[in-house]
Specification:
By secondary structure, the protein is mostly helical. The chain folds into 3 domains: about 40 residues; about 90 residues, Winged helix-like DNA-binding domain superfamily/Winged helix DNA-binding domain (Arc Repressor Mutant, subunit A, Orthogonal Bundle), CATH 1.10.10; about 40 residues. The protein contains 7 helices and 3 strands; from the N terminus they run αααβααββαα. Strands 1-3-2 form a 3-stranded antiparallel beta sheet.
């Protein structure tokens, strides 16, 4: 059960408390990225022999739930279509997925996971579950609920910033186009 969204507040880097929080959160962000990207954890999750890449696992996470269009896969992965195409090329080449034409519109390319893709995904998912269980097990039940709520809000805030940056980029492009045509 998640808590209601918090009201947005101002954040002032000149305020020593806000500044300290920003520094601690920034360090935690970096350490999370480093820890999640460490060779030992990567080897454990994705295997040492014929390891999956994180992007491959992200695609398989989605494809094990249902077949996807290339466009839909790109949108769900939050990547541009050309990156999705490269990711799919890798998993198809490795026998983890296959492409097929959409039954509704033969021009649309669909992607589905193969039996080998499901097997490899399940193995990684089991190892990921064990690791996450150990990590989250270091928190008490109330702390886990609070952490889950805060992580949900962090993801929403990141998505909001990404959307805002995209909007700002579009506004900048429109302004630049208007200036160049004047």
């Amino acid at each position: 059960m998640s808590s209601p969204p918090a009201e947005r507040t101002t954040f002032d880097f000149r305020n020593p408390v806000d500044f300290d929080h920003a520094v601690r959160i920034g360090r935690a962000w970096i350490e999370l990225r480093r820890g999640a990207g460490s060779a030992a954890l990567r080897d454990y999750f994705f295997g040492k022999e014929h390891p999956l890449e994180q992007g491959q696992m992200d695609a398989l996470d989605l494809l094990t739930r249902r077949d996807r269009t290339m466009k839909g896969l790109a949108e769900r992965l939050h990547i541009d279509p050309s990156s999705a195409t490269r990711a799919v090329q890798r998993i198809v080449k490795d026998g983890l997925a296959e492409r097929y034409p959409s039954p509704e519109d033969g021009r649309v390319v669909m992607v589905r996971v193969t039996r080998e893709g499901r097997r490899r995904h399940a193995a990684v998912a089991r190892r990921r579950e064990i690791a996450i269980g150990q990590i989250v097990g270091s928190f008490g039940p109330d702390e886990r609920a609070q952490l889950a709520d805060l992580m949900d809000r962090l993801i929403e805030a990141i998505d909001d910033v990404v959307a805002s940056l995209h909007d700002d980029t579009d506004d900048d492009a429109h302004r630049a186009a208007g200036e160049s045509s004047a």
